[in-house]
Amino acid sequence: MFPIQIKAKSGGWLAVLAVTLGIFSLMTSELLPVGLLTPVGDELGVSAGMAGLMVTVPGLVAGLAAPLLTVRAGAIDRKLMLAGLVGLMAVANLACALAPHFAVVLVARFAVGVSVGGFWAIAGGLAARLVPPSQTGTATAVIFAGVSTASVLGVPAGTLIGDIAGWRGGFAAVGGLGLVALVCLLLLMPSLPSQRAIGFADLLALLRKNPGVRIGLAVAVLLIVGHFAGYTFVRPLLQGLADIDDSMISTLLMVYGVAGIAGNFAAGHWVSKHLRGTLVLIAFALAVVTALFAVTAAGPLTATILLIMWGLAYGGVSVTLQTWMLKAAPELTESASSLFVAAFNLSIAFGALLGGLAADGIATVAVLWVASGLTLASALTIVSRNTNTSSKGI
Predict the structure, then answer these.
(1) Integer Cα distance of 23 and 3 in angstroms
(2) Domain-embedded: residue 389
(3) DSSP character for 189?
(4) Residue 236: pLDDT above 60?
(5) Is the dihedral of CA 393, 207, 334, 266 positive or negative?
(6) Which of 208-212, 213-217, 281-285 is least confident?
(7) First CA to last CA across the chain, in angstroms?
(8) CA pair distance 29, 46, nearest whole angstrom
(9) Domain housing 369
(10) 280-335: per-residue pLDDT in tens?
């Protein structure tokens, strides 16, 4: 065991960066259809709501795969498991790029969900095994930066590639990125044998005994479901409400991404001292922005300003929620991470599904009111819940 630890620490930061690249490629893969919803639906002959299943399916599967694969991982070397999962994602995206029918796309998206859930849940607890204790916090932040960066940068970049080379080119590019991540993991990550088996009873006990974890998961569900109910349909919203030309969508999503990166760093600066206040501010800002988008986004300028505000607010979500969960269960980070990953990805799935039902059953603009209501509910949940939890800093 001792030689393995020395080997892991010596090249730890290269391994951390390899894991970050893996999470970035996986989350970009999961969310890529947000930017390519319209062209995929048009070519394969499905409605916007039906095309939203490209987000719903992997989110749902990832939410189920996270705790299942964490429990079932057993003695499998974490390096080999992560490499296998990111390789599966790469193949699935290449299959999407070649898919002749929408059903084939959904099967491939199922595989993406397995990859995302398993990889993220396992990677969340690896920082302490890769770098010295004094650097664990920074390494954890870097790894999870791959999640937020995928949302705010990977999706716009994939959309831009899709606009230039067609939506199939966008999926192929993400598949290629996955192959690069696979090579980096194999070359840069040391062998990481399993240290402790986790059972379903451990996860249930954490939920039952830790009120901080329960509150964090409730807020995560409301916030992520609300956001993705609206954001999944941002392309048809920009086209229909703001009369923005299709050729400008990728550029605007890139602007959204830059704003999101700024939001990520801003939230990362404040969460250590003002965790609860930062989360309330983010949730309330999302509620206000999506409501204003529904009411006032009648032209390109207004819609662009609101999209930037949306990106600023959402950019801080991942780092803030992850910090909440780690502070709620500092001694059980792998279990807490597994529950958080499950909640996060199931919420992506149900958010996209709920938005699809609203878009097809009412009108596309209805997704914004769903988003506003749920994100406001998440802010009120934080404010109204008893602050006397068993964890410090929450």
Answers:
(1) 27
(2) no
(3) P
(4) yes
(5) negative
(6) 208-212
(7) 35
(8) 20
(9) 2-191+198-384
(10) 999 999 999 999 998 886 688 888 899 999 999 998 888 888 888 878 887 776 67
**Structural element, H or E, at residue 154:** none
Closest CA to 345 of 204, 220, 208: 220
Any residues with CB less than 8 A from the CB of 147 and at least 6 apart, and which? 23, 24, 27, 120, 318, 322
Residue position matching structure tokens 């390096």: 79
In which element (H, E) is residue 196 found? none
Looking at the domain assignment, is residue 65 inside a domain?
yes
Per-residue pLDDT, averaged over 158-179, amounts to 93
Rounded distance between C-alpha atoms, residue 131 and residue 394, angstroms: 26
- 36 within 8 A of 159, measured Cβ to Cβ: yes
Q: What pLDDT sits at residue 87?
A: 97
- Residue 393, sorted as left (phi over 0), alpha (psi -120 to 50) or beta, turns out to be left
Tokens standing for residue 60:
């749902």
For residues 159 and 169, give the distance between their C-alpha atoms in angstroms, rounded to a whole number. 10
Instruction: Please give the structure tokens belonging to residue 1.
Output: 């065991």
CA 314 vs. chain centroid, Å, equals: 11
Q: What is the total count of domains within the chain?
A: 1
* DSSP H or E segment with residue 279: helix 275-296
CB of 304 closer than 8 Å to CB of 254: no
CATH number of the domain bearing residue 313: 1.20.1250.20
Give the residue carrying structure tokens 């498991």. 81
pTM to 2 decimal places: 0.78
Residue 240: which residues within 8 A CB-CB, separation 6 or more?
364, 365
Of residues 192, 162, 183, the one with CA closest to residue 174:
162
Please list, in sequence order, all residues whose beta carbon lies within 8 angstroms of the beta carbon of residue 304, skipping any fewer than 6 positions away.
252, 255
Q: CA of 155: how far to CAs of 89, 148, 300, 317, 364, in Å?
A: 16, 11, 21, 16, 21
139 belongs to a structural domain: yes
> Whole-angstrom Cα distance, residue 342 to residue 33?
20
As a three-state string, the secondary structure of 41-74 is HHHHCCCHHHHCHHHHHHHHHHHHHHHHHHHHCC
pLDDT at 7 (0 to 100): 44
CA distance 368 to 360: 13
Residue 393 lies in a domain: no
